[in-house]
Design brief:
Layout lengths: L1 H10 L10 H9 L8 E6 L4 H14 L4 E4 L11 E3 L2 E2 L2 H18 L5 H16 L3 E5 L16 E4 L7 H4 L3 H9 L6 H4 L3 E4 L4 H14 L2 E3 L14 H21 L13 H8 L9 E4 L5 E6 L4 H14 L5 E6 L6 H8 L3 E8 L8 H10 L4 E6 L2 H13 L7 E5 L1 H11 L21
Parallel strand pairs: 1-5, 1-6, 2-5, 6-7, 7-8, 10-14, 11-12, 11-14, 12-13
Antiparallel strand pairs: 2-3, 3-4, 9-10
């Protein structure tokens, strides 16, 4: 049953990304509208959606809510995308619910996309498991993203930048409206809902307030907290965690009447802060410590120039004056030259790699890019346990640069590295027992 379900899911890849809610709505109706059987909170934005969703789900769970979390892409296994109280959907349930969606699609003559199928599986799973609330990370945009049919009462906007302009619009203003449209574009659908707004310029913030007012929605602009401690390094994660705290407080204190979910619960800020101190969003400025407590690896999926700038800012702040052995790999469509130039002042030795994924840049191409910039390649090899051990040994042996190994570049490589390292580091225990799943559908 599981293999048949996965075959059906993989058959959806041919449809790519198709913005629109018609297919999802039709299938929700055929499946008994599972999206209406739990409360939901939307998280939209250009960057920071995953960590914000993860932090928010953890805070809600700590307050006693049975909490669903829907995120993408995955790093190791498809099951990561659909969780309840930090536990991935069991393989048997995933296979069973995929077949349920398949049957509904065939009976309604609908051809859903890969992401739409997974969204429907998440809705079904959260409904049958009786979650109190689901935190739903949008895949692309908001207004036409399949997660929008859940009609959440809170929408968190993490940031706005130019992305998918052919679908979302040519300007940041257009993209902002598309993402805020996750609550509905008609006043009768959106009225009374709340936006939590972060990472916006003054101009975009004014536009967001005007758009929300026209819909009858409230806006909250959080202050970036100075008392948040996170396992993930970087100010941008503090910013995302600040959004999650405000969204959690709004949901707990305002968005549900006392007694409708777990009785009357008050938001507890000290509990929320203690929870965040334990929430390590995997593969993003994540520190891996050895048995002696020494940090041996930094994992960061800095897969484009924008992300590399944040990585460099964080290294300057937390490791001033340090240089790192860096295991690096990237996809063919990335501006590798710009990424390398930004990182070069912080790298002592370059080690380059690739995974079998077809879109990965070949080692010879990457070596040529680096040589053109005057960067020396200390080692190269296909990503494997043997090569990773070799790079870790070289890092440990370099007494002039007493720094952790920095593994960065493609998220595909981060996922493959986690699969290889998950038995060695307690910080990766979540991934133990998860079977690797291809990620060609990011």
């Amino acid at each position: 049953m599981q293999s048949i379900g996965m075959e059906y899911l993989e058959s959806r890849l041919m449809f790519g990304m198709v913005p629109g809610l018609e297919s999802t709505r039709a299938l929700c109706t055929a499946l008994g509208n599972p999206e209406k059987k739990f409360r939901s909170i939307h998280v939209v934005g250009t960057n920071g959606k995953g960590s914000t969703s993860y932090y928010l789900a953890g805070v809600l769970q700590a307050h006693g809510f049975k909490t669903g979390l829907y995120v993408s892409p995955h790093l190791v296994s498809l099951r990561e995308r659909i969780r309840i109280d930090d536990v991935p959907i069991p393989a048997e349930d995933l296979g069973r619910l995929l077949l349920q969606v398949k049957a509904a699609a065939e009976s309604t003559a609908v051809e859903p996309t890969f992401f739409e199928v997974l969204t429907l599986v998440a809705f079904l799973y959260y409904a049958e498991q009786g979650v109190d609330v689901a935190v739903l990370e949008a895949g692309m945009g908001g207004r036409l993203d399949s997660t929008a049919v859940a009609g959440g009462e809170i929408a968190v906007v993490t940031s706005i930048g130019l992305e998918h302009t052919e679908v979302l619009g040519p300007t940041e203003s257009a993209i902002l409206r598309e993402k805020m449209g996750v609550v509905g574009v008609a006043r009768e659908c959106a009225c009374g809902k709340t936006f939590v707004l972060g990472g916006l310029s003054d101009v975009l913030l004014a536009e967001a307030r005007g758009y929300a007012a026209a819909l009858g929605c409230k806006c909250i602009v959080p202050v970036i907290r100075g008392d948040i401690v996170l396992p993930n390094l970087g100010r941008h994660y503090i910013e995302n965690a600040s959004l999650s705290l405000v969204a959690a407080a709004q949901f707990i204190n305002v968005a549900h009447p006392a007694g409708t979910i777990n009785g009357a619960i008050n938001y507890d800020d000290s509990l929320a802060l203690r929870t965040l101190a334990t929430r390590s969003w995997a593969g993003r400025m994540q520190l891996l410590a050895g048995p002696d407590g020494r940090i041996r690896v930094i994992l960061d999926g800095a897969h484009n120039s924008h992300a590399v700038r944040r990585l460099v800012e964080t290294l300057r702040e937390y490791y001033p004056g340090k240089k790192f052995h860096c295991l690096f790999g990237a996809l063919k469509d990335k501006d590798v030259g710009e990424m390398l130039k930004l990182m070069a002042p912080h790298v002592a030795r370059w080690h380059i790699t690739r995974t079998p994924y077809p879109r990965f840049r070949e080692l010879a191409d990457l070596r040529n890019e680096m040589q053109a910039l005057g960067l020396y390649v200390a080692s190269e090899g296909e990503l494997s346990r043997e090569y990773l051990n070799e790079v870790l040994a070289a890092c440990d042996a370099d007494k002039l640069n007493d720094s952790p190994l920095l593994i960065t570049g493609s998220l595909y490589m981060i996922g493959a590295s986690i699969e290889l390292l998950k038995g060695d580091f307690a910080e990766l225990a979540f991934f133990r027992g998860l079977e690797p799943t291809t990620n060609e559908h990011r």
